[in-house]
Amino acid sequence: FKGGDTCEYLLSSGRFLGEKVWQPHSCMMHKYKNSEAKNCLIDKHVVFIGDSRIRQLFYSFIKLINPQVKEEGIKHGNIPFEDKSASIKVDFLWYPEVNGSMRQRIKSWTEGSVAKPHIIVVGAATWSIKIHNGSNEALAQYKINITSIAPLLEKLAISSDVYWVLQDPVYEDMLSESRKMITNEKIDAYNEAAVRILNSSSRNSKAKVKVFSVSKLIAQETIMKSADGLHLPESSRDTNAMILMNVYCNKIMKPIDGSCCQPQPPLTLIQKIAFCFFTLSIIGYLIISLIHRNNYRKNKSCTDLESGEEKKPAISTPNVSTLEMLLQCFCKLGLIMTYFYLCDRANLFMKENKFYTHSSFFIPIIYILVLGVFYTENTKETKVLNREQTDEWKGWMQLVILIYHISGASTFLPVYMHIRVLVAAYLFQTGYGHFSYFWIKGDFGVYRVCQVLFRLNFLVVVLCIVMDRPYQFYYFVPLVTVWFMIIYATLAVWPQIVQKKANGNCLWHFGLLLKLICLLTCIYFLSYSQGAFEKIFSFWPLSKCFELNGNVYEWWFRWKLDRYVVFHGMLFAFIYLALQKRQMISEGKGDPLFSNRVSNVLLFISIVSFLTYSIWASSCKNKTECNELHPSVSVVQILAFILIRNIPGYVRSVYSSFFAWFGKISLELFICQYHIWLAADTKGILVLIPGYPMFNVLVSTFIFVCVAHEISQITNDLAQIVVPKDNSTLLKRLLCIAGFFSGLHFFSAMQDQSRH
């Protein structure tokens, strides 16, 4: 379903998601702050012409610029407003009827060198109905008057934005006796006349008067809350003013979460190069496939006519070459990236705002938990945090985070605080997993480092190119990448202390603890020294990776939010492996981790700690204060979960294969959701099937999960080709990668220069 003209949809259709949340059909509406409104309307002149309903809209509009404005103007007179700091002028002109006076005022802007307003909002009819007691003669005169005004408005529409506001319905039961003649039947007749006459003579699309009809839909839902049956409640007129701001300002300000009225961004130089590369890969793969197919046909077994026996081919079917596999991967990736671009950069599919309700978050959570429990299987090994268990842990956490994002649950603070723990748990696993590998294996070779860095960053680098986004935009990948390098540096720097060496002399354990203390000191220092942190990451080329909107503050905030949890993961791995080596824990199938008494005590403490943290998180009132405490206390719930999951032997011996499957592609799921499940860079929801929210989620989720799984396989295949085990070959590949990034930086600099 094509997105179509989102401006037209914004002005004419939509629905309420909640009591005060308006959702335009097919696009997302940005909620403008007063600073943004000022930046958009700087040096602009806006005019509202009409009756008391237009005056209401005028006040709601200027309150977006200055919230302190009070509705104290003359009721039946002109009201000026000026913001001198931004040189904005907004005027309300009292013309309650469409007549000669209104025509003369509009005509004055079309003549000579008179400065024309940049935005003109016009609308009137109820006074004509009231004064003439709803007579048919008044309607006929209204048609004549609007016919004379229409060409003038169309002429102004060539250089200005002109909006004709259709009349809202009334709540007839609440109308006073003097307004009883204003019926919805009469209003519909006046609106029909206005729509039919406006733009009837204009063939030029630029000279069209925009009909503001969405106000009617909003009024139909809210007019019963009106104080007098005629004028809209404040929340409804504020919605109308916000729609008006979106129609005009979105194409200027280009907010990420305001897709209505935004043109499709032009292709950048890097995007064009990427498109050519993927196209050549597809063509190359097809050519090689055809050549191999023809060779196979030539060597295919055929029947000997003389003997009637089948001859076997002289040459067997050739194995897939490295080049063919490489082209096949890029061919698939090119098709997938086309889908990414169409979903979140081209105006092909619709997008909608998120709207949080408790049911939209908790019902899917319960559903996936039931599914996860249903797919319970025995583990291959019963060690603490074995591979199947960590995959399961990643899987259910990722699914909860996905539901959290699509439901817009970040607005509900207790849910936000628990999701913060899940993100911290990912980083805890990063510390635990990488520390365990280096400690046990003692493998600090370049091959291991390159493999990890490639698997973590490949998809993000491709998306940075295709979707024209900075590396730091996908904040989680830079976070785990930097922490991996910190773990590597901590353990690889002299003296290299590994388990094999430490077993020979216990003093090496103290040496490792000393390293961990030094790491903790550095983390503590950087977390309280924003200046030092920003200096480190402001040096080129780090600045190119970690800057977002021209500074590294966002990166500092993200790093600081979970600054201790990787250290906690490393420390936990060290203690656990030490206990395991000394056989102080029992990891047999069905056996409790410790003696029965110790296990019961630890289990009780873990459950109490887990619930205590949840109660504290649920009672949070201030996000900033809770975020300050989070880095120090999140480990409590993480450790409590690990102990609850691993102390009872029967619990440790089973896992959910459903969650584990998702856990294996958790990184791809987290990144892909930005563009092909959510929309507008996670600010909204992708709509493939409009009008059927549940069916849309099912279809988009199926495609999203399949794509994430395919990208995971592509990444694994490419990792084997791009990062070989042979050191000399690996060095050549690293030089090629360095050349690739140098070229990327060169084209990026050219791109930035052309933009400026």
From TrEMBL:
Enzyme Commission no: 2.3.1.45
NXPE C-terminal domain segment(s): 22-72
Domain Cas1p 10 TM acyl transferase: from-to ranges: 253-734
Catalytic activity: a ganglioside GD3 (d18:1(4E)) + acetyl-CoA = a ganglioside Ac-O-7-GD3(d18:1(4E)) + CoA; CMP-N-acetyl-beta-neuraminate + acetyl-CoA = CMP-N-acetyl-7-O-acetyl-beta-neuraminate + CoA; CMP-N-acetyl-beta-neuraminate + acetyl-CoA = CMP-N-acetyl-9-O-acetyl-beta-neuraminate + CoA
Record membrane topology: Multi-pass membrane protein
One Pfam family in the UniProt entry: NXPE4_C
Root EC class: transferase
Keyword Transmembrane found: yes
GO annotation (BP), single: carbohydrate metabolic process
Stored InterPro entries: Cas1_AcylTrans_dom, NXPE4_C
Keywords: Acyltransferase, Glycoprotein, Golgi apparatus, Membrane, Transferase, Transmembrane, Transmembrane helix
UniProt similarity note: Belongs to the PC-esterase family. CASD1 subfamily.
Subcellular location: Golgi apparatus membrane
UniProt KW Transmembrane keyword: yes
Organism: Mohoua ochrocephala
TM helices/strands, residue ranges: 269-291, 355-375, 396-417, 452-468, 474-494, 506-526, 561-579, 600-617, 629-647, 659-679, 685-709
Name by which UniProt lists this protein: N-acetylneuraminate (7)9-O-acetyltransferase
CC per GO annotation: Golgi membrane
Gene Ontology molecular-function annotations: N-acetylneuraminate 9-O-acetyltransferase activity
